[in-house]
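Let's practice the habit of predicting before peeking. Look at the sequence and jot down your guess about where helices and strands might fall. Then scroll down.
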Amino acid sequence: MFQKQPIMRKVLYALLPIVLFSVWLYGPRVALVLAISLVTGILTELAFEKKKGGKVSEAVLVSACLFALSMPPAVPLWIVVIGMAFAIFMAKEVFGGFGRNIFNPAIAGRLFVYISFASLLAASFYAPGNFGAAAGSLFGKVDALTAATPLAIMRDGGSIPLLQLLIGNRSGSIGESSTILIVLAAIYLIATKTAQWRLILSTLLGGFGLSAALFYGGVASALPPAGLLAGSFLFITVFMATDPVSAPKKPLAQWLYGLLIGFVVAIIRTFSASFPEGTSFAVLFSNTFASLFDKIVNDYAKAKKERLARTENLQAATRGQK
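Done guessing? Here is the structure:
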């Protein structure tokens, strides 16, 4: 049934500790959200691949996990179904399936539901802890009062202890909170050659570099660079900016692509009032330039090679005349 993709399986291995930590933070409802996302993604892809005689890719499992982990813990379950179906249908299958999509499916699905159901999702965050003691029933309405995310607190002039940001015991999307686990996942993915380190490093440099420049340059609305630990920036950097299908392939193009993601995140977080997170827009926006960056780098290398060949031919002709 599944098309075997060892690289995608390694991404799932890297996500497993984050999933377990999220269950500890928000309770068994996390497993339910994840299960619904997986079933929806598999059935949607199967419906299209069956007509073509193809198999469901293991990449859909990664997309489903990333989409689920990017949702707020109290997300209405019907939104999970709509978002994941949109992700696989509109961001993947309409382009021809795995390997042909230009946009990251999980990002496309996340943006679709965050724009379509903004008020519902904004009210779907709650304080973590005690195995989701505040979560209420699995299928019913969450009992807890809505909790402000660290980004919202920072925008209102408050602060979040750095240790809390590192450990991840704070409100936010299901899988974005633990900086330590995300960094460990990045090390594993780089060590196993599953993720390209240039994409991770360039995205971090772009985000932290421009954030620091804006903050220390005196821009009133700029958050401190540590604010990038408060949202999904690290999660997006490690798991979505490194998507091998929608990211560039050439080394120099990867540097340009990662820097662009980081820059756009910093700009949106500083100047946007409606969407203070910015990470999903940054990745989707940068996806559109991935092939262009590869083409620019290829054209530059080709032109350089041609110039070198002409120079060598000219030198050979000069030596022949002598």
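How did you do? The longest strand covers residues 2-3.
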